[in-house]
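Subject: Sanity check before I submit

Could someone independently write out the structure tokens for this chain? I want to compare against mine line by line before I put it in a report. The sequence has 157 residues.
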Amino acid sequence: MKDANRNGLELEGDTERWMKTREVNYTSQYNTSIVEPGFKKQLRVDFYVVPNALDPFYIHCKTQDVNGSVEEKMGYLMHDCIPILDHPSVIIVSGEQCDRLLGYIEKVQDRCGSKFRAAFTRDNMSANLKRLIFTGGELVPFKKLKKPDEQMPMDWG
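---
Independent answer below. Compare away.
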């Protein structure tokens, strides 16, 4: 198995374990009702989350460890998928090149309109998911998450 695939699966596994231990209502590898642009199959998302008494949302997990085509990986998600989905999306990023992913997201986030809620790193996943799932609270603004001195501490509790 390639390192990139393994690292991506680890991020999905961390996210799933976090939700399982907190008894969050979710479905992994969820087939949406939306047909993928240019294909004849349903769009699949990493997680479909239905918090108690709050609006459902999708989680997309993306890992970037090597210099590669961030534009290709994120372009499809940000330009073709998120804008047509029926619920808002959150993106969790990890890897040695996650700053490149966040930089690209920051540049194109307006194209997704209200369908894009937030992007954050694995390190501040717990704090942000707690806010989203349990309180419906505000997330730390996306642009602030890029600066290391403003990152939330890793909190798996």
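---
OP: Matches mine. For the report I'm noting this point. Residues 140-157 have pLDDT under 50 and may be disordered.
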